[in-house]
Amino acid sequence: MKLELLQSIRRAWSPTKQTGFSLVEIILSSAIFVMLVTAFVGAYLYGEEATMLAGNRLRATLLAEEAIEAVRNIRDPAFLNLADGTFGLSISGNQWLLSGSQDVSGLFTRNVTIATIDSKRKSVTSHVTWQQNPQRTGSVTLVSGLTNWIIAVASDWTTPTQAASLDMTGTADGFKVQVLGNYAYVIRSATSANFSIIDITNPAAPVVRSTLSLNGTPKNIVVDGTYAYVASDSDTQELQIINIASPVAPLLSGSYNASGTQNASGIAVSGNTAFLARKNGPSLELLVFNITNHAAPAIIGSLELGANANDLVVSGNYLFVTSDNNVQELKVVNISNILLPTLAGSLDLPGNTDGEAIAISGNTVVMSQGSLLFTVDVSNPLVPVQRGSISAGALINDIALNLGGAGSYVYLATSNTANEFRIVDISVLTTPAIRGSVNLVGTTSNLFGVAYDAVGNRAYGVGQLNTAEFDVFAPQ
Q1: Could you count the other beta carbons within 10 Å of the beta carbon of residue 16?
Q2: How far apart are the first and last CA of the chain?
Q3: 155: left (phi > 0), else alpha (psi -120 to 50), else beta?
């Protein structure tokens, strides 16, 4: 009985037990299957995303590389095409252009940042961003350096040459010259067609692009941005402001009629402020103007210097002014308050010859006194110190500097009819030395003005020779 009962119980429970194990196995198998499917699908999807991200990064890298090459292409015609700033890129007439602040290609946004390293080199940073997914942004950045490859790395200014010249219309002397970008701006000793813009894109073949007639005879010029500022002997327009945005169509934008009949002799500009030096009058040899509105410059300050002011330069909070004062040939004016400029220091040079041309770089002022060139340390502007001097052999009419980087040259326009263009090395301030010179053709070929272009590594002179009022000087 007991045995039969046990067998009956075993038979009763056996199917239920077998059924229970089958369900567990099914559940376990399903779970494992789901996990395997999830793993395979996840791996597939991750692989797809990784492939897509890798593809996007590759495309972004190609766009960044393209931008570097585009900027190189923009540089090739003229190094000055590379303005500092952050830009996008566009194409017009099959040429790359810097345009706006960024450009967009599909899901990619690109910009290039150009920054000056020195006068011959630019840093170019190409940056591309895109949205990888809703949570993450991708980016690629490439950096390159571009040089002004047109300029020879080594150039010898100890044996300069007259590389080109230009016969300007008429017989008026070239008086002063300034260079900015691909253009030289020339004033002439005349009362008509006395302002000219010369295209020097190819320094070997300069071309006059336009002329303008200004009231009176211009005496000095400075160029800043899209404006030229002229100091004139006109009794009604001592300060003249010319819009040069269009090189082929300069326009007189504004002028100022200063009190009295003193002739303006020098001009300097800093931001929205212009400083005008005057001579041949009883007072107020220095005038200060607000030039925010170029059409209507407004006088905001003045200073009695006690002697003719012949030329001036501005550096930070100080003006350095050359004068006729025999014990203050160099005057230092504090302009930290431009509404109330004050005489802050001075320098007495040897002899009684007037201070004339002046230029400045850093803490070094270079100025002329007759035929002598002086180097002056203005580390302490209140107490300028003469460091050295040298004779140019004749009257020094104008000065230009090449003191950037490893440069240490001063270019002189002189009345030395055997060496009108002279180069002085001031690498040692206490012992300046003549390094090179050029003798222009003609018996009365004095140079009156000179300017230096660091980008093209050329000096430009203007002077008396009627068949070549404009000259280009180059190193060997």
Answers
A1: 8
A2: 129
A3: beta
Look up residue 184 and give its two tokens.
């030289």
Give yes or no for a contact between 160 and 473, defined as CB atoms under 8 angstroms apart: yes
Take residue 461 and report the two structure tokens written for it.
């002179």
> How high does pLDDT run on average in the chain?
89
Instruction: Supply 71's token pair.
Output: 């900027």
| Domain boundaries for CATH 2.130.10.10 within the chain | 161-474
For residue 9, the surrounding DSSP H or E stretch is: helix 2-75
Question: Residue 80 gets which letter from DSSP?
Answer: G
Distance of alpha carbon 356 from alpha carbon 396, whole angstroms: 8
What's residue 275's pLDDT? 98
The tens digit of pLDDT for each residue in 31-66 reads 777 777 676 665 665 556 666 677 888 889 999 999
Asked which of 33-37, 294-298, 384-388 is least confident by mean pLDDT, the reply is 33-37
- Domain spanning 161-474, CATH architecture: 7 Propeller (2.130)
Contact between 279 and 265 under an 8 Å Cβ cutoff? The reply is yes
Q: Which of 354, 351, 299 is nearest to 321 (CA)?
A: 354
For residues 292 and 311, the answer to whether their CB atoms sit within 8 Å is no
